[in-house]
Amino acid sequence: QWLDIASPGNQLMTNPVVLQRTAEQHGANLVRGALHALADFERYLSNAPPPGANDFVPGRDVAVTPGKVVLRNRLIELIQYAPATPAVYAQPILIVPAWIMKYYILDLSPANSLIRYLVEHGHTVFCISWKNPGEADRDLAMNDYLELGIMAALDVVNATVPGQRVHAT
Questions:
Q1: The 125-130 sheet, strands edge to edge
Q2: Mean per-residue pLDDT for 118-124?
Q3: What is the distance between the alpha carbons of residues 69 and 60, in angstroms, rounded to a whole number?
Q4: Residue 127: count of CB within 10 angstroms of its CB
Q5: Residue range 97-106: average pLDDT?
Q6: CA-closest candidate to residue 93, choices 7, 160, 15
Q7: 0.90 cut: is pTM over it?
Q8: How far, CA to CA in Å, does 107 sit from each of 44, 114, 151?
Q9: pLDDT band for position 10 (50/70/90)?
Q10: What are phi and psi for residue 38, nearest 5 degrees?
Q11: What is the 3-class SS of the chain, one letter each residue?
Q12: CA nearest 39: which of 54, 50, 29?
């Protein structure tokens, strides 16, 4: 990334596309860019979120399938979704998303939701929501992610639906 700073394509005076647009727009593009940079700097100083950061609120715009948190620790929240059918499969499903993903990527909207599909087809679904690590979590190791994350979730799933094999994905 540091090397990209020196790239001729990233410099105003050596980028022919930018120079052409600047001439066509009589510099208006540079004014707009400066105003955007100023707005970004003001947002940085005031600690305000970027534009659109609040456009998708979990529970309102995404992650709309009803569920409840059944486990909360320093690393995860485990959400349980009850089946929405009278006939229920005995074996529960535990979804373990990647650490860098938010759980609601699997529950974006009613029409685009793996979790909703599963509960509407009689499955009891559990999904891990990984917490964003902070400075206090810098000492966490891979073993902590296994113990506090996946194994803790499996313990709760097994206690909630005893005697059943768990489908984990």
A1: 68-72, 76-81, 125-130, 93-95, 167-168
A2: 95
A3: 17
A4: 26
A5: 84
A6: 160
A7: no
A8: 31, 6, 23
A9: confident
A10: -65, -45
A11: CHHHHCCHHHCHHHCHHHHHHHHHCCCHHHHHHHHHHHHHHHHHHHCCCCCCCCCCCECCCECCCCCEEEEECCCEEEEEECCCCCCCCCCCEEECCCCCCCHHHHEEECCEEHHHHHHHCCCCEEEEEECCCCHHHCCCCHHHHHHHHHHHHHHHHHHHCCCCCCEEC
A12: 50
d(CA 121, CA 126): 15
Sign of CA dihedral 52, 54, 60, 64: positive
Residue with tokens 């909207």: 109
Burial of 18 (C-beta count, 10 Å sphere; 0-12/13-18/19+): middle
For tokens 């984990």, the residue is 168
Taking residue 12's Cβ as centre, other Cβ atoms within 10 Å add up to 10
- How many residues in the chain? 169
> Residue 111 region, left (φ>0) first, then alpha (ψ -120 to 50), else beta?
alpha
